[in-house]
Amino acid sequence: MKTKKFRSLSFKLTLWYIVILGGIIILAGIFQYQSFKDSLLDELDAKLLEIADETYETWYRERGVSWEDAIQKTTSRFQSYQPLIQLVKLKERGGKKIEEVIHTTSIEEGSFLFDVRTYYRADRSDIDNLIYMTLSEEKLGSIPVRALLFPVRGPNIVQVGISLENTEIALRRLMIIMILAGGGLLFLASLGGNFIIRKALKPVKSVVQTAKDISADDLSLRIETGQRQDEIGELVDTFNDMISRLEKSVKKIKQFSGDVSHELRTPLTIIRGEIEVLLRKERSIKEYQKTLKSTLEEAAYLERIIDDLLFLSRIEGLEKKEFDKSVQLDEILLKVVESQELASKKKGITLDIKKVEPAQIKGEEILLERMAANIIDNAIRYTHPGGKVEVSLDKKDGTFTLLVQDTGIGIPEESLPLIFDRFYVVDKSRFKETGGLGLGLSIVKQVADCHGGKIEVTSEVNKGTSFLIRFPDVQ
Ligand code: ADP
Fold it and tell me: Does any ligand 1 atom lie closer than 6 A to the CB of residue 466?
């Protein structure tokens, strides 16, 4: 349960949200900290310049004032900053050397010094590029000192320093405030973010729950979409659509298996009944022969149903792209017509070929033969003696059109949408007479579909029916 929670989408999204927000807060914090530090140092540097300038001015303005006095005076004037002030006298000639260092007693001897080269560099600097440096010196204490090297006439350098203690305290305080505020902000934002993510993902939970509640026995459940127009709404709609389609196909399967059982049961009941009656007493040879003949007929009928069902299940799901061989539809059609000629003649029906153009399509011969045979066989079976059946195969605008027209009994308009359903027969009471199982047109439709063919049926009761199948001409 615990690991499930950590793997949940809302947990992952919240985690991402916290990581990204945390990153932004840290970056903003670093930027804020750095600019605050820069502004504190700028302020300090300005103060250092002011003190250095004041020291020089005091010495220069009041004639006769020694450097010691000037340093002393400025130190007490800027007492609140506790500045370290000293004058570093440089040798003018005879190598780079410090001649003398004048400072107050508060500075320990030699503790506030940089190397000689730095002083000579400072001597060459002007007001726009003065040297500011940070000095960490044990003798000055544990906290570094910010210093300015200010060149004055001589060559002399007025060196002023202020401890970075106050700056460090201010920066530390800022850091604590930022950590607390940033942490608090992150915590509150993640609570809020988690709340929003959970709210947004709530319908997903209901999808999961409904999916769990749905079983093959109850596919009537649907998920409430509300008025959502977002991605989740789309997901829910798709899911509901899928369930609807599933419900339809499960219904179809149930209906189909019910129909199959029924269709198989009827002839079996007849066989059983006839045999039971036959066995009740001694019968004559003739009676045995009659019953055996009748049960043989029923067995043949059963065999046809099973054959057709097997054929249907074999071709179900076949797709056009699976056929890589080309076949001559015209030749197949002529072969089928030839095989049906005897049956039509027997029934007194004229079977005519109007026009057959060469037609090469990608497909399987056995399937196409069965398709054509079923349509022509129907046309003969549902046409009264003296009637006519016409067959043609045309090529027009890149399509081959197979047409089978009869002058038979026709199909009522309300039955037209149903004739391709399995076990559908228009007139059940006449099925013995016509020998129909209601599977022939299902096979026709299936074969046409998997060859990319489109079927059109037009019919008028007592006038006739025409079956037209268009095949795309793809070579
Ligand atoms: P069947 O084996 O009963 O012929 P089909 O699936 O081939 O089954 O046809 C379904 C139903 O469509 C038939 O029962 C029949 O009523 C009707 N039908 C098919 N073809 C024709 C036709 N040419 N003329 C009239 N009715 C037809």
Answer: no
Strands laid side by side in the 131-135 sheet:
98-103, 84-90, 156-163, 145-152, 131-135
| 371 CA → ligand 1 middle, Å | 13
Residue 387 CB–ligand 1 contact under 6 Å: no
Q: Nearest C-alpha to atom 21 of ligand 1 is from which residue?
A: 378
């540097």: which residue's tokens?
45
Say yes or no to pLDDT of 191 above 60. Answer: yes
Domain 214-317 has CATH 3.30.160.620: no
**3-state secondary structure (DSSP) of residue 356:** strand
Ligand 1 binding pocket includes 54 (Cβ within 6 Å): no
Tell me the per-residue pLDDT of 272-283, one tens digit each, with 9 for 90 and over: 999 999 999 999
The confidence score (pLDDT) of residue 430 equals 53
* 3-class SS of residue 390: strand
Question: In terms of CATH, what superfamily is 320-472?
Answer: Histidine kinase-like ATPase, C-terminal domain (3.30.565.10)
Q: How far is the CA of 308 from the centre of ligand 1 (A)?
A: 15
Q: Where exactly are the structural domains of the chain?
A: 11-168, 214-317, 320-472
d(CA 50, CA 67): 17
Ligand 1 site, residue 437, Cβ cutoff 6 A:
yes
Residue 413 CA to its chain's centroid (Å): 46
Q: Do 148 and 45 contact (CB within 8 A), yes or no?
A: yes
Can you spell out the DSSP letters for 132-187?
EEEE--GGG-SS-EEEEEEEETTTEEEEEEEESHHHHHHHHHHHHHHHHHHHHHHH
- For the Cβ of 378 lying below 6 angstroms from any atom of ligand 1, the answer is yes
Atom of ligand 1 nearest to the CA of 408: 24
> How high does pLDDT run on average in the chain?
88
Higher pLDDT, 180 or 434: 180
What is the rounded CA–CA span in Å between residue 392 and residue 390?
7
**Which CATH number is associated with domain 11-168?**
3.30.450
Give 295 Cα–ligand 1 centroid separation in angstroms.
Answer: 25
**Packing angle between helix 9-61 and helix 67-77, nearest 10 degrees?**
140
* Closest CA to ligand 1's atom 4: 436
Ligand 1 contact, 379 CB (< 6 A): yes
pLDDT for 375 beyond 50:
yes
Does the beta carbon of 48 sit less than 6 angstroms from any atom of ligand 1? no
Question: pLDDT tier at 392 (50, 70, 90 boundaries)?
Answer: very high
